Amino acid sequence: MDKLTPSQIEAHLKNLDGWTYDNGSICKSFVFKDFKEAFSTMTHIAFIAEQQNHHPNWENVYNQLTIRLNTHDVAGITQNDFDLATAIDHIVGKH
């Protein structure tokens, strides 16, 4: 998997709503109705992440979830990160 250049990252971000590039990761925060909804969504994301063999760095505080994606193997951002970000947006849109 090839590491994306900064210009490639910016181009990919234009196709995602609310994701930003910060300190070597693409990031997005979500707010849910309550903890149960946040955790339910995290569980759904976990199954997709496992299926893709690409796992997020995330933090959950009550109804808030912050996700940071990068590809550790290349120490940067790859297409895998954008594929998972797209899947995450799809999952969150269903909840």
Describe this structure in words.
The protein is built from three helices and four strands; from the N terminus they run αββαββα. The chain has helices at residues 6-13, 35-52, 79-94, and strands at 20-22, 25-31, 57-61, 64-69. It has a four-stranded antiparallel sheet with strand order 1-2-4-3. α2 (35-52) packs antiparallel against α3. The longest helix is centred in the middle third of the chain and has 18 residues, at 35-52. The model has no long low-confidence stretch (mean pLDDT 96).
The residue fraction in helices comes out at 40-55%
Placed side by side, the strands forming the largest sheet appear as 1-2-4-3
Largest sheet: 4 strands, antiparallel
Proportion of strand residues: 15-25%
Radius of gyration from the alpha-carbon trace, in angstroms: 13 Å
Instruction: Give the class from helix and strand content and strand pairing.
Output: alpha+beta
The SSE string, one letter per element, is: HEEHEEH
Average pLDDT level: 96
List unreliable stretches of 5+ residues. Answer: none
The assembly state of the depicted protein chains is single chain
Distance between the termini: 31 Å
Shape: globular
Total DSSP E strands: 4
Features:
44% helix; globular; alpha+beta; 95 residues; 4-stranded antiparallel β-sheet; single chain; 4 strands
Task: Give a nutshell description of this structure.
With 95 residues, the protein is α+β, with helices and mostly antiparallel strands.
